[in-house]
Amino acid sequence: MKRIGTRFRALIVLVMAFALVASACSSDDSSSGDDSGSDTTAATAADSGSELVTIVARCKASPPTEEGRCNNLLRGAVDANAALEAAGDPRRVQVDIIQDNADWGDYNTEFELASSAGEAPDIIVAGHESIGTWATSGIIQDVTDLIGNYPEFGDVVDSLWNSTELDGKRYGIPQDAEARPMYYRMDLLAELGWTQAEIDALPADLASGAFTWEDMFDTAEAAVAAGVVEPGNGWWHRPKNGPDFLYYYYSAGGELLDESGALIYDQAAALKVYEIVADAVDRDILVDTRLDGDWTSWNAGVANGDVLFWFGGSWQWADWAANYVPEGGEEYLFETTGFGPIPALAGGTNEPTSLTHPLVYMVSKDADAELALMVISKATTKELNTEYAVTSGHLGILTTQADYPPYTDAVFLSEVGSILEFTTFLPNSPFYSSWSEAYFLGIQAAESGTSPADAVAIVVDQLQNELGDNVIIK
Amino acid sequence: MTEEQREQVLEAEGDALSRAVIGAPKQPRSSLGRRVRSTASSYGFLTPAIALVITFFLVPGVLLLILSFTDLSSSNFSDPWNFVGLSNYERLFTDPFFPKILRNTVFYVFTTLIFFNLGLALVLALVTTNIPRRQGFFFRLVWLLPRLTPSVVYILMWKRIASADPFGIYNQFMPEVLGASGGNLFLGGSPWSFVILTNGFIGASFGMIIFTSALMSIPDDLITAAKVDGANTWRIIRDIKLPLIKWPLLFIATYQTLSLLTSFEYILLLTEGGPGLFTTEVWALTAYKRAFSSYFGNSQWAYGATWAVVLVTVALIMAIVYVKIFKFNELVEEPRIENL
Predict the structure, then answer these.
(1) Parallel, antiparallel, or unpaired: how do β-strands A38-40 and A91-100 relate?
(2) Which of residues 96-125 of B touch A (CB under 8 A)?
């Protein structure tokens, strides 16, 4: 009995100790469960007579390079409060941020479910294509009439506003933009026998269409055959679905929207895309397991010189320099890695291409749109946006950045920005997500051994099942 | 006093003693009242459990069923109850990848179950109960580590081991040792092996604990008697231990089948159902992906619910089949020796 009593007391002590530790961990109000942590501005709440309004902002950002995405709102809140004070407005804003690096799908779903539960953040940063779905379902606000109240927004590059529009109304404010180039390893090309002059001329050849997709595959095949790279490492695309695969379709001559805004699935263009990826696998340029969803291995592979050609994004340059290259950061990348637009595809448009996928600040349905836009406007300055762009490898979104030395001095941004000449965009359609999933299924199928023609049939079947009359099969 | 009179006196004294001890009233209440009180008492004790089952299983189950007859998704969020009849079910059963996902699920459940959740668990229990007690305890503790480790950390460790070169340690060195080319020999080359290993190591620990407990409760004199009769270790295991732990074996088989059928989190973290085209995708993962996960956030809640409804139905049917085949009622009835 005494023995049981001793054990019982020990158990009680253990439980109490655990409870103490747990309560200590939860006592920090600023940590609300996200990986990179939440933070709060030091608002001027102490001012007598002021009315404090809390604005919650939600951002997906890869640490440490992209954290300015939400952190700039914290800094913008300080200027917003100064402006409110100067205007004699008794309100003050406090911005709480929730910032982590969740997958886009999970991140978007979280916002949808939070909106349904009435607990959505006031501001969310997401890809512009989400406007199609979210504006249609009414969980974000139309801010068209409010934008003119904030002069800072007049500095935003005009063409970027197109990405925030649906049916002539604006549902967001551009936050960043990027280029999606083809990268290549200059040291591996040299090892394959290319002269320095040929390597130096490659960006221009890509831009002029002289170096085509077929040339890239031929070079990659030669590199595999010569043992310069391992089989399967001649060319890599991203390891999971994403915006990039759409420019394959554009390159193949595919149309995506008709005049009424309805989505189109062009079977001939899709077939061409599926033939390309199947061909890459057949020629040992690409492994059939490349779509393994593992970004870490993918980034490590390309940054360490295992791969000859790969399609990526400008923001990844900053990520590789900060987190992946063996040593030397950006200097190492400049020595070893080149970039240019996505090569032209013979039999398609025969033009080089790329894609820009602007992220936009959106205001949720129940938020105070006026105050939310005021905070966003104070974060939309050349100083803050340039700091973010240079750190994260994104392109500037403001006209004044074109002659702002901290921006123009960033060599990578200056060079990769030229790819915008060939850029394309995702559509703002509420049905694009389903279209994209189906189209990507065809890429998965073709790469895994299904014939390209069968892959097209699978996709058509899925599109008709999911979208019915909302897609035109051409 | 005759023998019969003596027995009547003894019986009366016994009744009086019983009433004194348990404080029973001298005049018993009517049998109907007793039955009502007993029934009410039983339901009173069951109420919390019934409330939990209704709140967390029955209501969500009914909602899931209703949801599966709608077309609710991200793109029609503002109109949640648009009923579309059986079209989701029609779509599911005509999905070109339905057979592949079904095959994957059957393969995953029964391979993991037979080789790990039952097989390895039994081997571990037998071995660790046949060595000195302290060592046995230590080895069981080691085998519990996968279960004690948070799932994300556990899978991250496996990815560090088996992912493609240069991220995965094995792929950095082993292909050269094995004389193979390519830097993605393990997780990329044989993803099923790793899906089954990672799940199996966790599942084995559960069976190991249950089997160990059952094996340690076998009376020593049975084993001693068998040894005296000349039985070797194998005979003792086959003819004494296994028959005596039949109930835990069948329980683990049933429980783990249902558990594996609905589990997907380790596969999601390890391979996301890939690489390639649904290579390691199982039913529960498809339900999750359809309902909650796509690159652009196109959540098809209704279609995901349809996959889940079919899964729950299959699981219920399997539970009933197991109960019937394994004759659970006979296994849990009172030992006959008590009825003698």
Answers:
(1) antiparallel
(2) 96
Domain boundaries, chain B: 99-282
Separation CA A35–CA B222 (nearest Å):
57
Cβ atoms of A270 and A456 within 8 Å: the answer is: yes
Contact check, Cβ <8 Å, B182/A129 = no
The first and second tokens of residue A236, run together, are 């890599």
**How many angstroms separate the CA atoms of A273 and A254, rounded?**
10
CATH 3.40.630.30, applies to B99-282? no
Show residues of chain B in contact with A108, CB under 8 Å: 74, 296-297, 299
Q: Given 3-state DSSP classes, what are the helix, strand and coil percentages for chain A, each rounded to the nearest 5? A: 50, 15, 35
DSSP class per residue in A27-42: T-TT--S-SS-EEE--
For tokens 């081997």, name the residue: B123
How many other C-beta atoms lie within 10 A of the C-beta of residue B133?
Answer: 10
Q: What is the DSSP string of A283-310?
A: TTSB-TT--S--HHHHHHHHHTT--SEE
Query: Do A301 and B164 count as a contact with CB atoms less than 8 A apart?
Result: yes
Q: Is A430 on the interface with B (CB under 8 A)?
A: yes
CA A298, CA A316: separation in Å to the nearest integer? 11
Could you read off the pLDDT of B77-120 as tens digits, one per residue?
A: 767 788 999 999 999 998 889 999 999 999 999 999 999 999 99
Looking at chain A from residue 225 to 254, which residues have their Cβ under 8 Å from any Cβ of chain B?
Answer: 230-232, 240-242
* pLDDT for B285 beyond 90: yes
- Counting every residue, how long is chain B? 340
What gap in Å lies between CA B315 and CA B302, rounded to an integer?
20
Is B91's Cβ below 8 Å from some Cβ in A? Answer: yes
Burial grade of B262 (CB within 10 A; 0-12, 13-18, 19 or more): middle
Q: Is the ipTM of this complex over 0.85?
A: no
Which residues from B are below 8 Å from A139, CB to CB? 77
